[in-house]
Amino acid sequence: VLTNAFRGPIWARYISSKASGATSNGTEAFFARISSANIHPPRRASKAGWTVSRIGFGAQRVGFGVVETHRHALKLSLRSGCNIIDTSGSYEQGHSERVIGEVVKEMVEDGELSREQVIIVSKCMVPQGGKYASISDGISSSLTHMNLSCLDIFLMNFEDGESISLDILRSSFAVLEDEVASGRIQYYGIAADSFATFGPNITQLLSSIANEFPHFLAVQYPLNIFEHHSITQRTPPNYTLSDTARRLNLLQLSTRPLNVNVSKALHPESVSRHASPQLVRLACVPSHEGKDLPHQLRDAFNATIHLEKTCPLRAPVQDDGAPRHLPPSDLSGLSWGHIVANNTDRLTDLWAWKHIVERQIIPSYETALSRLARDERLLPWIVQYRLALNQMLTQYTYALESNAASDYALLDVTLGRAWSDDDVGVRSLSLSQKAVKILLDP
Q: Is the Cβ–Cβ distance between 439 and 257 less than 8 Å?
């Protein structure tokens, strides 16, 4: 999450133990212990009085997969000069907030941090037409997940421009002002995946509402080298969203510096909220040059499909001389070789494929194999199938990476031209590092 306190993008973050929330003195003290040579100079969110790091910790995927890696990453971020964390009660079904709460509590108890030093941002999706009870429910859920008494910023996450009107904002902000008065949040704001879809009304809406509600602090929007409409697209009277936020003294939080929604980047005003996102990750991928990928992939498919065809469960299993048929549910998750081989014409997007592997294929076959492992006679086949399927998934990933490598290499070279030939250090950075640095540099 990047944050813009008046001038340009910054990133956002979070922390926890039950004590109060971020304070002016606390956030200033946070940076007193950090070497200024190792971080981008922090910025001041003057309405709140906080000192805010330019780069923070975005926690959308925290809590899924290797959680210990996420815990280590969050600790490293907090120790390295990031003092703002951005999460949501919907991220990984609440596991993101739980992990964050655990890590912050641990670091506070160990004396590495105080709760007052870190800015915690959470959010909830606002349904079409309002339903303001969901706002208070979202705050309650986040506080419970993270074991906090107060959130520093709570964002209403609007899905698209049709969701926002002056009446909805006024009604929602009135609820949020009550939450501030109750001490459950300090400030609040609005977030959207693409403010560009709101058209010219967004700057007028913000201008109309900002002075009415004293604790309206933040706006959050995507910002990367492709999705830059919030800082480049001007609406009457010749202001960008960023210009308007700066003029109104609002803290700007930007997200997704490395994940591009291609459809919204190219045609932000015409994308339906029901359209499936086309995501591109700004990261170099290996070309696997010198490997015989077609031959290796063919062998991996053949081995996996052969094991699926000869799975002991596809024929009666003899038990004391009598055939025993296991229920069809036991075969669920054991056909991925066939499924992928029959859909190679559709499985062509590298990042979509990686998402499918991580979220669908691996959980499916591991659940199936754990069921089968109760029968010791099936263990040899289980070992063979797991190895073969993992090899097939790896080889298919290699093939997609090889196909995409030249495009990402060209993007890397093109982005590197933003700096002079003399700046060898910057030009040697990875694509991901360049994509972030170009947002942080003046």
A: yes
